[in-house]
Fold this sequence. Notes:
The chain has helices spanning about 1-5, 20-35, 60-70, 90-100, 110-120, 135-150, 165-180, 195-205, 215-220, 240-250, 255-260, 280-285, 290-310; strands at about 50-55, 75, 105-110, 125-130, 155-160, 180-185, 210-215, 225-230, 265-270. By secondary structure, the protein is of the alpha/beta class. The strands form 2 sheets. Strands 7-6-5-8-9 form a 5-stranded parallel β-sheet. Helix 3 (about 60-70) packs across helix 13 (about 290-310) and helix 6 crosses helix 7 (about 165-180). The longest helix is centred in the N-terminal third of the chain and has 19 residues, at about 20-35. The protein starts with a helix and ends with a helix. The chain binds phosphoric acid mono(formamide)ester. Phosphoric acid mono(formamide)ester (CP) binds near residues 58, 130 and 138.
Amino acid sequence: xxxxxxxxxxxxxxxxxxxxxxxxxxxxxxxxxxxxxxxxxxxxxxxxxxxxxxxxxxxxxxxxxxxxxxxxxxxxxxxxxxxxxxxxxxxxxxxxxxxxxxxxxxxxxxxxxxxxxxxxxxxxxxxxxxxxxxxxxxxxxxxxxxxxxxxxxxxxxxxxxxxxxxxxxxxxxxxxxxxxxxxxxxxxxxxxxxxxxxxxxxxxxxxxxxxxxxxxxxxxxxxxxxxxxxxxxxxxxxxxxxxxxxxxxxxxxxxxxxxxxxxxxxxxxxxxxxxxxxxxxxxxxxxxxxxxxxxxxxxxxxxxxxxxxxxx
Length: 312
Ligand code: CP
């Protein structure tokens, strides 16, 4: 399996098969075990990775730094405003130069076409640290967390309530791949990208699960094992519509009443950052069903798996 990944870009969950995603999650679980047992795992000793973040980040950026250090590699933050990119140097020129210096690039940006262009001009792996279309590193951490909490994926029901966007897209595909039912609860007018919905539903048809987009929050919550929240206004994308979005999404707030409609054994997940009083309440994130800190930690173990698997 390792040979299938070598020098491969990790741009989207939809580019991978269910077997490949399963392999990455299993590798992450093994790396987590080593990290927990303080077993050395410096598989990337002497390598150097570049990082470009055009948007803010706490988890994605810092988990990558920590992951690189634990793997014996260095990660160097390339400030977009200090690079010639900001003065109009073409991506294809930047990409070919970066490729000569670094063993890989981790990039958070706007359109998927930007990471695709970097990938087109780089032989070393490009890893998507979030675009408008997908957040595939978050998707892996979500799968690992669910596996840890339930011991398996098949048969788990996920209720997702939040912006129907990158995180939701990767989660839909991951659930479809692994045989989990996912109900995306959102108001009228907030829909997944059709190609993502189709991809997730194709995987679900194979794995025997369901990918449903519904206006009915109760239907999504009924029997849910995972209640997954996300912001209602995605960073740098639709913040101008913040007030309208808060109004539209308020019936989908994950509060104690909503959690009570899911299974008693349900866990609360959230990619974070979350907005208490909007997409969830303080009592839910701080409550006994919340697994958000484990989920956040898993960002580090899963990105390590991507780095190790894709390294040239
Ligand atoms: N979940 C996530 O991507 O968090 P950051 O924006 O803090 O990286």
